[in-house]
Design goal:
Elements lengths: L1 E14 L2 E9 L23 E3 L6 H13 L1 E17 L7 E16 L12 E8 L10 H23 L3
Parallel strand pairs: 1-5
Antiparallel strand pairs: 1-2, 1-3, 2-6, 4-5
């Protein structure tokens, strides 16, 4: 079985409205298909920024890079949240089963404008946006990412004063 190692982040930002989290709306590969479809692709599917660890790169560096590439923002590392492990079958090419490990970290927003990303990233990311952290777990498409957001919420409950001091 093929193995893939990825990393990503839960990027939070404290605003007058409360904690916000950076999410992406991935491009749906079936949205460009000319084949007839029984169902329309779901709208508003959100995910956390993440991607494959490049050769010679560590998981933390990958998470920082992927956050910037997919959202347009920079963020500072706060804590490791979890390693999510699962198996999926590639829907393209060889249809191979893949064992995947994704390391997620909690980050605090530093700078940049959400969704100001390079044009070549639009093949992967339809848009990036801030959504309220409260309830975000109900909007994410993947169970593992919902669990990671819950861990971020728990971390913030325990450490919110420290993190809010460095926020906008």
């Amino acid at each position: 079985m093929v193995r893939e190692i990825s990393a990503g982040g839960v990027v939070v930002r404290h605003t007058p409205e409360g904690w916000m989290v950076a999410v992406i709306e991935p491009q749906r590969e079936d949205s460009t298909s000319t084949a007839p479809s029984r169902k329309k692709p779901p709208k508003g599917i959100f995910a956390l920024p993440k991607g494959l660890v490049d050769e010679g790169e560590g998981a933390k560096e990958t998470a920082v890079r992927e956050i910037f590439e997919e959202t347009g923002i920079t963020a500072g590392l706060v804590a490791k949240l979890a390693d999510i492990k699962y198996v999926y079958v590639r829907s393209w090419g060889d249809k191979e089963r893949v064992f995947k490990i994704v390391t997620f970290y909690l980050f605090s927003y530093q700078s940049g404008n959400i969704d100001e990303i390079a044009p070549e990233m639009r093949i992967e990311v339809k848009r990036a946006s801030w959504i309220p952290l409260e309830g975000a777990e109900r909007k994410l498409a993947y169970r593992g990412e919902r669990d990671v957001v819950r861990r971020a919420q728990e971390y913030l409950k325990a450490h919110s004063e420290e993190l809010a001091l460095g926020a906008d």
